[in-house]
Amino acid sequence: MTLIELLVVIGIIGALMALLLPAVISARHAARRAVCANNLKQIGLAVINYESQSNVFPPAHLGRASLNGACPFPADFSVFVRLLSQMEQQPVFDAVNFSMTSWDLSNLTIAGVGLSTLMCPSDFNVSMPMELPLSTPLVEDISLPPGRWQQQFASYGAVVGILDLSASMMNFGIVPGTSDTVVPGFDQYMKYHTGVIFPMGSTRLMEISDGTSHTLLFSEKASTTNGLSGCPSRWNCGDVINTLIYSLFPPSPSNRPKLAMAQASSLHPGGLNCSFADGSVRFVNNTIDSWAPLGMSYLLNYRATLISTNPFQCLAEVTPGARLGIWQALSTRAGGEIIDDNLY
């Protein structure tokens, strides 16, 4: 074979590779997206089984605080911990010390248990556990006993509604000096969450008047783009940093930094997988209709105003003038919105 013939062969091979490589990459993305959708399908079925057994949907977390100040946010377990039995993880469920918080030393072992159902294959960081203690800008870990301890993560979060209202729990929702004594009336404040699975929630199926096929339960919350919290979402912790999502912000594309820690996000090209209250899973485009920010911030679109702490009273509502987008409408259980299935 002459040098010219060799160069021709190399050129042909290079051209074939250039043609085949996009197809191979596309097939890999499709396979990962399918696995991710199956994960959310299993989580959604676990929720449906939970509702069938308890007649209510599980809470995103309960009102509990960390007395040692290890976490400035609610320190109760995530919804995934409460779904362990329905996810065929009964031994892990039995090992949880529910009398203590998720940050307590007695639950260190649980933190290190990794569940493949909670890990999207496109979310590469989530499959790599981190050594405890973790150092993040918002959370200081407690002093650990001797030994090697790890923290596992999750790629998904419960959609609590348009906005999470439980972060304020540490300021006025828990009786000072206690870990789980809730201020009277605060549980009623939590019902202002527009979603199905929310803090201190006990939503009944009949309360989802918007229709289960039009109401979100879970969405993706990619760890790799979560640069705000300094680490991926801890699967066992139920606070807004970790396993909660709200729809105040539109979904975050994989090539764009997140605007908030609880913003839905994915590393799938073009959109993200979402689980609905009827058990279905759908791929939602990043371009889904979402409201425009009032002024310079999305935070102005929704207002939560404290009226009184004794008795506890507040107001949480969409700001007048803010037009609810399809993405926000999907996160309400009883908003009365009419949603065309072809729009998402």
Rg is: 22 Å
Could you estimate the helical fraction of the residues in percent? 10-25%
Summarize the helix and strand pattern as letters: HHHHEEEEHHEEEEEEEH
Shape: globular
Q: Termini distance?
A: 57 Å
What is the number of strand segments?
11
Q: How many individual helices?
A: 7
Sheet of most strands: 5 strands, mixed
Widest beta sheet: strand line-up? 7-4-5-8-9
Quaternary organisation: single chain
Structural class assignment: alpha+beta
- Average per-residue pLDDT, rounded, comes to 83
Share of β-strand residues = 5-15%
Poorly predicted runs? none
Describe what you observe in this structure.
With 344 residues, the protein is of the alpha+beta class. Helices cover 23% and strands 14% of the residues. The protein is built from 7 helices and 11 strands. The protein has helices at residues 3-54, 79-82, 90-95, 108-111, 169-173, 186-190, 326-329, and strands at residues 130-131, 150-151, 153-154, 156-161, 216-220, 233-234, 244-246, 271-276, 281-285, 302-309, 312-318. It has a 5-stranded mixed sheet with strand order 7-4-5-8-9. The chain has a two-stranded antiparallel ribbon with strand order 1-2. The chain has a two-stranded antiparallel sheet with strand order 3-6. β10 and β11 (312-318) form a beta hairpin. The protein is globular. The N and C termini lie far apart (57 Å).
